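anyone seen this seq b4? input:
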Amino acid sequence: MLHTAHPLVQATAQAADAAAPAASTPQLVVAAVAGIAVIVALIVWLKLHPFLALVLGSGVLALVAGIGLTDTFTSFTAGLGSTVAGVGVLIALGAIIGKLLIDSGGADRIVDTILDRTPAARLPWAMALIAFVIGIPLFFEVGVVLLIPVVMIVARRVRTNPVLVGIPALAGLSALHGLVPPHPGPLLAIDALGANLGLTLGLGLLVAVPTVIVAGPLLAIPLTRWVRLAPPTTVLGVPDSGTDDAATGTGGTGGLPGAGGTATAVAPAATLRKPSFGMSVLVVLLPVILMLARSVVEIAGAGETGYGTVLEFLGEPLVALLLTSLFALVAFGTGTGRTRQQLGDLVGSSFAPIAGILLIVGAGGGFKQTLVDSGVGEVIASGIADAGITPLLAGWLVAALIRIATGSATVATITAAGIMAPLAAGLDPTQAALLVLAIGAGSVFLSHVNDAGFWLVKEYFGMTVGQTFKTWSLMESVLSVVALLTVLLLGAVL
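predicted toks r here
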């Protein structure tokens, strides 16, 4: 069943269709190039925040496409509002779950339990598994800050190159960030392309598994030969107080010391109880289970049955994340000894870090709507179709090019989704979901010096720029290509 567009999106599209300019095809192509060029130039050369760059790029696109001055930002503001309405609440709920998972010690518990049961030879696989599990609800940057101290501790205690255990962790986080909702990029693409969220989630997890295996533990082996880093003697400049008896990964992470001075934010206070491993994993997987159950009901055509109706309601993305947030308040809040006031403060503090993300996502929705309403998206989509390029490959190429140019996975996803939206209208639900994943795969291609993540990894691992290209940048490229190949394979058989 196709995802039903938000009523505001439908109303916006109808109003815009009535007022859309009758511009020629060359003019619309020039408008698209000009709008995207302005966004790239403002972000890359002037270092302008992506929010402002997207606003200005949308204005340039509208003016060149022949939209009148008074209506320059009409589509943009309508698109921004509908995108935040459809995606913003889900991002906010995801931020609450992530904040509670970290501050309660639930993430720490997952890490400790897996490492305690892992022999030294399998630590790269364990790190990939950890990143895969906790990467579902956590934003990429949060996951990096959480896991890099663990990577350094493990590398020190087993006396190995940190690349061997670090690359699998980074691969797991990056794959989830680009492919699996409720991360902002996939959510935005799902909204823009009218894809089914539950179906995209299930296929995203299916694509992510082989992608993480290849770009993580398997790729890490040759990378350790190309970039030889000594076992760390400190964890981000802080001596590791753990003993070397924990060479098999036992002994835990010690509250993840050295996380850039944020150890107290990760580890729970001594007076609070840590949630169990089972409870922590349940909170992480609960929204996944609910949304996948909804998709199974829809695919099986059981939506009219009693249990089908209930599962469809519980699996609605907003309902699934809301229920999980409430469950997390109990499991990670009152269940660990926190007061209601402390819980309220925690929830409040989870919103500040996502303010910028919401603005970028909203502006991206505005840019997408301008592309669609001006007719630019239709022209580009027709050109792609006439060129004989499959929508999946085209979506990946557009996202990859924007990613290389701007360094932003979110901007790449936004732009590619807007361009591919007209093509998505004629796709069945499975192909629309795969198009979301192809765009997500392209959005993480070749991270380099214009990407904040490049410098984040460089500094955490203490590498040179060249070493970061040989490890992080190469891993991101391999991850992107493997994900694309997996998506193309699924597209051929489904």
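The longest helix spans residues 74-103. Residues 371 and 377 are 5 Å apart (CA to CA). kinda curious what u guys think
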